[in-house]
Amino acid sequence: MSSPPVTVRPPAHARTARTPTASSIAYGIVGVVGELLITVGVLLLGFLVWQLWWTDVEGNAAQAEIVRDLGFAPPVVAEEDDGVAEPRRDEPPVIDEPPHATSFATLQVPRWVGEQERPISQGTDRPTVLDVLGIGHYEGTAMPGGVGNFALAGHRVTFGKPFNRIEELQVDDALVVRTADTWYVYKVTEMEVVTPADVRVIAPVPNEPGVEPTERFITLTTCHPMFSARERYIVHGVLDYWAPVSDGTPAELLG
User: Fold this and answer.
1) Membrane-spanning residues where (predicted)?
2) Which of 81, 151, 207, 224 satisfies CB 3.0 to 4.6 Å to 231 for a cystine?
């Protein structure tokens, strides 16, 4: 009687690998995509933290240092008075327009309780002024106290956001500008929202291009709405009075 045939199996390492199924391939792709999305999410979160928080931390510190570096002397307070500067409405002194990126004045807004004094520098480009110095002065517009429109720009979010609270301003609120020797107290007259192309708002007479100015205006410009550059939020004002720093401090800053 013959023996049954013997089946010889190939060694394990020589067996043919199992062909991947469509479902296993799909699961692999989903896993890779998921890991990529997590990585992108972490990077995006880090960017948002830097953009919306850390740039403010750095910006506020840098702008406070710029104000200190301006070296403006504190107002002189005579023993016989209360330290309030007497308003003057005659011809104010006006400094010359400085070179680009030069810090020459500061802005304080009593309505924005708790906000620090902000430096004003020449120019409005982001890399050399708005992102690093704070508030920018539109070159070619009037200087503080000058006839015409003293026009300013500032960030509403990020980089210290000096104009973050601009929508809180109301008609007759004070905008206090200081140079080395002089206070200029402007009062808010109106607010408006325009498109970025509406440069008429910084004309010598706001919104009236070509008209010769006879008054001393101020204009604040910033992006609108919050976290968007689709429009511009505009605040206009007019000079109420000026005073020498040596005479004391404007009443609006003393509460």
Assistant:
1) 25-50
2) 224
